[in-house]
Each structure stands twice: as C-alpha cells, then as structure tokens.
Amino acid sequence: LKRSLCLATKSRSIVFQQVACMSGGSMPPTPRGGGWKNFPDLIEKWNPKLFKGVGVGLGVGAVVTGALVSPLAGAALAVATGAYWKVGLDDMRQTDHTLRRNFPVLGNARYLLESIRPEIRQYFIESDSEEQPFDRQHRAIAYQRAKDSTDTIPFGTRRDVYAPNYEFAAQSMFPQTASHELSRVLIGGPQCKQPYSSDILNVSAMSYGALSANAVLALSRAAKQGNFYHNTGEGGMSRYHLEGGGALVWNVGTGYFGCGTGTLVRSFDAHMFQDNASKENCKMVEIKLSQGAKPSHGGMLPKGKITQDIAEARGLTYPAVEDCNSPPTHSEFHSPEGLCEFIAKLRELSGGKPVGFKLCVGKPEEFSALIKAMLTTGIAPDFITIDGAEGGTGAAPPEFSNSVGMPMAEALTLAHGLLKGAGLRDQVKIIAAGKVLTGFSVVRTLAMGADVCNSARAMLFALGCIQSLKCNTNTCPTGITTQDPRLMQGLHVPSKADRVASFQAKTVHVALEITGALGHPSAHAITGKDIYRRIRSQGLRNFEEVYPWITTPDGSLLATPGHVPGGEQKQGAHPALQSIWDGGRIVHPMWGRA
Asked: What is the rounded (10 degree) CA torsion for 115, 118, 121, 126?
C-alpha cells in the first residue's frame, strides 16, 4: 500500500507538470537533480505503463479514503478513478490520435487547450488592433452603434499616424452639411424601367441556409426600418426575406435557386424567375459570377441538409432525393456577349427592374473584354458589384479565401477606370464590398470609385456576432450562422432588427459628417483627392496619385489621344488601362511591369 501511494504521488506531480506546460505556464527551477529543470524530459516519461500505475494508486487511494476518511469521499474518488481508467483505456484503444495512444489521459489536455485557444486569445491575450479578420476596435464600433451606446473614444487616436499605409481624410477649411437624401443613389440605366433609390450602405449577400431564419428575418426587418436594401445571397428569396418586408436584391447564382430546376444539374427556368422577380420586395436582380471569399468555386449542398424551408426558397423538391449542386460557372451563358444577353433577358422578364452582376475580379483582360461586349451588344448592366478578395463567407477552402482573387481596392479602381474609359460610367453604377464597417471605410470606398457600399460581417456584428469563427460548424453560439433550433431561438428578431437598423443609420451618419467635413454637400462629390495614404518611400499621396487610372477621362479608351478640332489637346487613358484594353500586359508599378 505504501509503495502504491508513493507511486501515485509521484505520478500526480508529473501530471501537474504536463498540464502546466501545455497551458503555457512555467515552473520554478529546482536544484540539480530535480525534475523542473528538465521539464520537457518529464513529459516524455508519461506512458501507458505509468498510466496504469497511477490508476492502481488512485484505486487504492479510493479504498483507503473510504475506510479512513468517509464513505462519501471514497465514493467520489472511486468515480473519478473510474473515469480516469475509462478515458485512458479508450485513448489506448483508439487509432486516430498518436498523442493519445502514447500519453493516455494526459494527451487529452492538448486537445482541450486547443479547443479553447481562440477564446483565451480573444478575451485575454490579443490587443485591440491585431485580431483578424476584424480587430476588437472595429467590432466595438459595430456593437456600440448597434446598441445606441457611447461610440466616442477619449484621449486621442491609438493609431500610429506616421506608419506606412496610414490613411486619412483631408478636411476642408469650409465644411458643409452633407445631405442624406441627396447622397442616395438612383440605380438604373437607360434600359431600366423601374430604377431603385439606394442608400450608400446596405446588407451584402448572405444566403438563407448559411444564415438562420431568425437572422434573415432580422436583417430584412432592419432594411425596411432603415430604408436600405438586403441582398439575398444565392440561396434564393426565402419566406423570411419576404416576411421582413425589406427591399431585396435577388442574387441569382449558378444554381439558379428560386428560378431553376434540377438537382445535380441545374437549369434556368424563365417562368419561375418571372414569378419571383415580380414580387414587390424584389427591387433589383444581381447575377452572381463569383464572390470574394471563394472566387470561381462552386459548392454542394448535401441532401441531408435540405430542410423544407430551404427547399422552398431554392425551388427544390422535398424530401430531397439528391445532393444539390452549385457549379463554378453558369450554364445559361459562356462568354461576355452571352452574359450581356442574359442581362437583357432578366431585365425584360423582371418588368424592367435593375439587373447587374457581381464578381471578384481576376484577370483584368477578361473584365476589359466584358466591357467591350457591352459596347458591341449595346447591352449594359445597371450596376456591377465588385466583391473584394477580403470578403467573408460561411465556409471556403483556405487556399481560395487566402490566395485567389483581387482585393477590393485594386479591383474597384480598375473597374471604375475601365468603365470611364469606355464611356459607360454614367450608365453603370458600381457597388463595392470588402470589410466596410466604419463611416471612414464608406468614404474611402466611395473615393476609389464606388457609388454604393455593401457590408456583410459588420451587419452580423450588429446582430450580435462575436467572431467565434464557428460559421462552418452549425454551432454558432449567437444563433446567426446555424440551423440548430436551440441556438437560433436565442436570437430575438425585433431587438436585433433594431440594432442592425441603428448601426446602419449611425454609420451612414458618420460617413456623411466626414463628407461634409471634406467640403461636399453629398457623397456623390467625394473624389480620390479627398483621401491620403502614407507610403513609406514616397510620403503622402492622395488616392488619385496612388490609383491614377480613377481619373481616366470619359471615352478615352475608345480613341487615340491627340488633337481634336479646335486645337485642344485630347487626354488619353492611363497607360495601364490602355494596355489592358488593348489586350496586352499591364505596365504600371501597382500591377507589375511587362
């Protein structure tokens, strides 16, 4: 008995050392010959044989405790000992984890600590400005404005204003009061019969299915309260989108959900599209070519996840008999000219509502070819949504999220410059999305050429998202990105709708305050000269100097620069844009040299 108790005491000491090491703790050194000095070596001493020895010691200890202390204490120790043996023997039998087989019981500490590492880092370790994709400072702004609480900061900026890439708005000595009503944007070109007046900040595309029913309903109600639009995402217009009563932008993806038939192979259905597009809530139609978080990547919805509500929204049969496919590309068109013709078709079927497309820009030459197709067919979209590679999604392969697609700044300025050079910028509005959260981020996005901004994750913060990064696990603790009824019911629709509406209104208000400080009466007057960036080797440069193609003269890509009748000098397009337009390689330091 004495030998067993001594063995248990020694082994317990090793266990405590191992847990402390895995927790990132430290132990004071002991004199030569002691264990703490060679702590990593002690970890290696734990093995199945030692596990069994400790188990025997715990068993004996339970018997002794029950006899000498109290039966209740002995029973409690016996239960703990039984659990110890159960976990350890399971660890030794399983074949998935080498660490658990070699270090029974103790090896589980690693997985426990790994599971709570994000929470420990978020709450105790990270600074206010370092977490990705959104740091604490930005999340706090969203929370404060959503709750209508104090959103000011004391004692001045915490940012290093002399650091490279620091950006700021250059205010005017003669500020004005910018009008919200005058800053709204009328979307709809000459071929549109039902233009839509959009706010400068709206809810970006997020599908029902990726979001819970309560989250979709709250966003739609908020859109109605605040008079801004809510993009449905490619999952179709669900009854929760419609029930909320907000203005909707119907996102038509490669799966043609809500306007198509089939499962593994989906086909566009004109009659189904016409029925849905004629609904009063549907204000615009957006053809999804790609999205920033996973450009040109399709997806498969397993039949087991197709609920009755999802089947209803997507136009699928229920109960599902097959998986549902969203391929990487559209089946209705295969060329830029085909896309233009599809735009005209949807515009006619919808009764003349604004129709555009969304993409994450990839090859600049392909985007140029698309604009050329608008000229040759005489069909232009009413809007183009530029989704930056920094955009979010519920789930995507890390390589696609991290390494595929063009970021918003370069894509937006490229699109703006090419449309201006082609003489189409006045007809085609640009909507931009890519980590837009603050009033300043709205203003800087407009300064790069956008007319309207979309935001997804900022709206989720307003809903209560805590950035737990569990969107792809169906265990979202705030009930936003889950279909689990238990978690979803915690999201109270009326109060969350109020918070989203409050966040949007306050963010737009701050954006317009900055606009007025710049000396402009409305957001339409913002230009690249209003925002400056510190560049390490060049000092301060405004956006027109950083992205010179945003000042491309209207129609300059269509003619050779030179003299025009009357003796005036005609300004040509920027060489980078002209090279793209001509099908050559890009020749500008921002993009790389030929």
From this structure: 170
